[in-house]
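Lecture notes, continued. The same structure-token format from the folding unit now serves as the input rather than the output. Read the line below as a description of shape only.
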């Protein structure tokens, strides 16, 4: 299959049929740091998520890991944000499934919904991407590295799409859904600099940028053919 076959980009997420996939919300990241503002949490994230659910009307929403940031205890605003996300999904009749990531160390203390190490949709498997997969698939959708790309001095979150790049399977890497997670700039990154074991040849991944203001999706050549133009 083409890496993007049956996939549409929406905001910093994708749809796969009637399934909405988002990654790396890192709810509570600010509360776990010295930042006074709870970065990316609260009304702003819930509002974007609710708009996305209303626009896509999914039957299921899959969180591809790192719904939470890492904590010793769960701050109160985190519970409020999670409640808002759950309500937004309920409002459109969607079920939320979490595929836990490496930051979801306290997920079981605040999340009573379904979790799956790997979520399968046909020949596509969704997981966080921080460890090797247990399931064979034709395509994997992952998060973990928070990719961004700098074009003409402007840095934007991007999706990375590679065909046949992991044991012959396609890989789609999603950016962080959290607007305030800076992410890593992939312009000059090589495979060894990515944290995910799914990236074995960075040059084979093509960046895709969703321009939310213009409602346009901008597709670029693979990094190996594109780096010199950045």
């Amino acid at each position: 299959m083409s890496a993007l076959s049956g996939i549409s980009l929406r905001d910093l997420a994708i749809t796969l049929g009637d399934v909405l996939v988002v990654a790396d919300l890192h709810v509570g990241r600010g509360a776990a740091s010295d930042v006074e503002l709870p970065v990316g949490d609260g009304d702003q994230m819930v509002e974007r998520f609710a708009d996305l659910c209303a626009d896509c009307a999914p039957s299921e929403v899959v969180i591809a890991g790192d719904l939470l940031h890492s904590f010793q205890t769960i701050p109160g605003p985190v519970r409020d944000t999670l409640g808002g996300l759950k309500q937004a999904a309920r409002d459109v009749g969607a079920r939320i499934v979490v595929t836990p990531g490496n930051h979801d160390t306290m997920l079981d203390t605040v999340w009573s919904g379904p979790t799956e190490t790997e979520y399968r949709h046909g020949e596509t498997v969704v997981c966080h991407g921080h460890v090797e997969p247990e399931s064979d698939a034709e395509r994997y959708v992952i998060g973990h590295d928070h990719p961004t790309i700098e074009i003409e001095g402007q840095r934007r979150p991007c999706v990375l799409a590679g065909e046949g790049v992991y044991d012959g399977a396609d890989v789609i890497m999603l950016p962080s859904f959290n607007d305030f997670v800076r992410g890593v700039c992939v312009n000059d990154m090589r495979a060894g600099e990515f944290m995910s074991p799914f990236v074995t040849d960075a040059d084979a991944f093509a960046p895709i940028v969703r321009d939310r203001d213009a409602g346009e999706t901008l597709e670029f050549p693979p990094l190996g053919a594109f780096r010199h133009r950045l």
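Point for the exam: The radius of gyration is 17 Å.
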